[in-house]
Amino acid sequence: MAEQKNILDPLNVDGALETSETFFMKYKNLMLGVVAGIVIVVCAVIGYQHFISGPKALKASEALFKGQDYFSNDQYETALNGDSLGYAGFLKIADEFSGTDAANLANAYAGLCYAQLGKYEEAVKFLDKFSADDYLVAPALMGTMGNCYAQLGQLDKAAATLLKAADKADSPSLSPNYLIQAGQILEKLGKNAEAVDAYKKVKSKYANSYQSMDIDKYIERASK
């Protein structure tokens, strides 16, 4: 995804807290792009084996594969609503196969499409329908929900969801980013003590992550 690959370094926080609009525009690509990449990779490698099985789901699997292709090429509207060549779209797949694993994945992709299109309420609606217990996709989508809440101005809910995503992931590749995002939002809310707790968790629990190398400046700033 061309746009999302040009994400900003989460450690470059100079001026990030000047205004809410500046902050969220600056980190929008980071908030959404990394998660989308994770879901594409995981679903491509294990999704169709783990979530979809049996000949009955073959049609849905093929449709999802086509939708993923559109998604990977930033064609979010087409991925959602289908094309003129027979691809139904994630929305129709989710509805037609409701209650199945295929619909579960379609809901996840639909939510991500809406997030990329800036339709955050719709994104939350579909992401919330996704259910899985794995340690990558589920927390990644939860993190995306947190970022959508932030875009909607629901900052308390955003911070809480990001903290939950960090705990669920329990991963040095995901959790530090979610903790830092949550901490920055908590600072915007004036909840500096809670922000410090989030930053300190990066330092103590994920000491080997690259984010921990500069985490002291976050702690120092929020401690003032």
Tell me what the structure shows.
The chain has 224 residues and is mainly alpha-helical. 69% of the residues lie in helices and 0% in strands. The chain contains 12 helices and no strands. The chain has helices at 2-5, 20-50, 58-72, 76-81, 90-96, 101-116, 120-127, 137-151, 155-169, 175-188, 192-205, 215-223. The longest helix is centred in the first third of the chain and has 31 residues, at 20-50. It is elongated. The N and C termini lie far apart (39 Å). Mean pLDDT is 78; it is low at 1-25.
Which stretches are low in confidence, meaning pLDDT under 50 for 5 or more residues running? 1-25
Major beta-sheet overview: none
Over all CA atoms, what is the radius of gyration? 18 Å
Report the principal-axis shape: elongated
Number of helices: 12
* Sheet/helix structural class: mainly alpha
Count all strands and give the number.
0
How far from one another are the termini? 39 Å
- Strand fraction equals under 5%
Helix content: 55-70%
Summarize the structure.
The protein has helices spanning 2-5, 20-50, 58-72, 76-81, 90-96, 101-116, 120-127, 137-151, 155-169, 175-188, 192-205, 215-223. By secondary structure, the chain is mostly helical.
Notable characteristics:
224 residues; 12 helices; mainly alpha; elongated
Fold topology:
Elements: H1 2-5, H2 20-50, H3 58-72, H4 76-81, H5 90-96, H6 101-116, H7 120-127, H8 137-151, H9 155-169, H10 175-188, H11 192-205, H12 215-223
Helix pairs in contact: 2-6, 2-8, 3-6, 5-6, 6-7, 7-8, 8-9, 9-10, 10-11, 11-12
